[in-house]
Every structure is written in structure tokens, then in C-alpha cells.
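Handout, section B. The chain below has 365 residues.
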Amino acid sequence: MALKCGIVGLPNVGKSTLFNALTAAKALAANYPFATKDPNVGIITVPDTRLDELSRLVNPQKVIPTTVEIVDIAGLIKGASKGEGLGNQFLANIREVDAIVHVVRCFVDDNVVHVDGKVDPVADKEIIDMELIFKDIETVEKRLEKLKKNAKSGDKAITKQVEVCKELLGHLEDEKPARSWEVDPTFEEVMREMMLLTAKPVIYVCNVDEESALSGNDMTKAFAAEVADENAEVIRISAAIEADIIELDDPEERMEFVKEMGLDEPGVNRVIRACYSILNLITYFTAGEKEVRAWTIVKETKAPGAAGVIHTDFEKGFIRAEVIHYDDYVEHGSEAACKDAGKLSIEGKEYTVQDGDVMHFRFNV
């Protein structure tokens, strides 16, 4: 399934540097606002050691990981909701993504200008939050006017939607994002149609200097405290370090450099996995001589739905799924050994696929 995450933030916070590290696409990273006018798009693989281990055991002809589409969106400034800077384009690009990677600058460097003249990640976050909220208020107001006109017919369902829409508008006017509003069941469809910017899940990435990559600094601590009530994931990375890592072509050299910096893994790996996790996604695998492949599904997906990710015919003609849990596969070393050990189960239409399941589908069309 397609997954798209948008990297957002004020100009010169490190968005394009992070994008380059994620994709090695070499997007323009420059020391002036609006270096990114059009969104750069890159397809990146989701790091998963389980796929590597299954590939080692099976030795297939091909290995196909699951992927995430990353969009580097133009920097935003105050007044974007009214069209300032590249505001309209920026907001339109955000509307198209599934999740937001919000980069805030947590380092001081006189050689890298800040659009507001000072480094304050909390204030930077508030600027973007408010611009997105302002745009959502505009969207909700337009929908409310349309609902009010339709409500004149006396339709009770539409009248109810008017009331709920007013509640949502009040929530936004209190400077609270739509994602923190409990959606009334009668309003879910309208909510989806509006595609509100602040309804999208968010990951915060604190871009720090090299010295703060391990333990953070006063700015990262202040930022973490600011977003503590949002139940959002906060990731601390040094985009400069990540840029150096990606310059190394040899995987072993990369890991050696990572360890020299005192890190367990590249920070971009955590960003990618966080994108995956925040959208409530999991991975299952298919494993055979031709290929070992990772597939993306939403948590709680039943077996037929998981089969449909491979091909719609698999879902339509689903008969059963043959399932081996990942840990069992690794312990016994092969599908045949798992069968002999009684670790291969036959599951029907009501089976809920688990993260890491190794599956084979039987179907008839």
C-alpha cells in the first residue's frame, strides 16, 4: 500500500538535508528561504532486520522491502495560510500526505540564517501549528456554510452535522489541532472529506548539532516538554551526521562511522520506522526461492485483506492462509522444518495478521 510522509518546517531548519539523508536524492540544500520551491519526492526502503534474516535463510533470487514515499515540502513562514511566501503551495502539498514529519531546528550556527532571526524550536512549532490551524478554520467555515444551507431542508442528520461542525470549529479556534478532537461518529465522513491539515499524525524531528546527537541540549529538552501532552513521537537526530553517513557507499563503512559517533544506527532509520508506526502499519512477509518480500498492511487486517495487498484476486478467491510466525521461522530455519515442528498453522478468513507473519495464500478465482 502507498504511504506518503511530508517533511515540513520553517526555512533553514534542515528539512532538505534530512531529505537527502533519507533518500540520497541530493535535493538542493541552501542557506536562504525557499531553496525548496517544488516538493522533492523520494522512495525509500523501510529498514527491517527481519527481512535480512529471512533472505539469509531462504537465499532467494530477489529481495523486495516495503517502501515509504518521502516528500520534501517548501518551507513555511508566518502568513502562509493567507498566501504569504509559498504558503498556498506548501499547504496544498501537506494536504496530499498521510503523515507529517515536522523538523524543528535545535542548533545554533551563525552561518545558517534563521528566518525569524533567532533559534527557538518551540516558537517555530507554534508558527506552523497556527498556520495549519488557520487554514483548517477556513476549510471548516466553508463546510459549515454549506451544511447550514442544506439543513434548511429539515434533514435531522444534516442538522446534527451542523452542530458537530460548530464544535470542531470551536476546537480549532481554541488553537487546538483537529487530531486532538474526538470525532463524532456522525461526522466521520465529513471529516475525511475536508482533509484537514491538523488531523494528520505528526512526528517531531529535533535537528541538533553533532555534539547534541546523543544526549540532546536545552532546546530539545524545552521542546520535549512543550509537546509532552500531544502523545507524539519526538526523534532527535543530527542532519549533518546523517548527511555524512549517506556519503559512504559501503554499508560496513557506514555502520563503522555510526558506531564511531556513539550511535546504534543511523537516525534516519528511526524516522522511517516512526513514519510507518504512526500510521498504524505492520509488515508481513512472503518467502520463497523466487523472492522474499515485505508487505505493508494496517494493524488488525484480516487474512483476506492482507492477501488483497498482493493482488485483488487473492482476496476475492481467498481459501486459506498458511502462517508461520517470524520467530518460529528463524528458530527452525526453513518452511519445511517449521511444518515438521508443527509451527505452520492453517488460518481462515477471520485470522488477524500479526506483525512479522510469514504467509502463503491459497485462493481460487
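Note. The two ends are 22 Å apart (CA to CA). Compare this with the example in section A.
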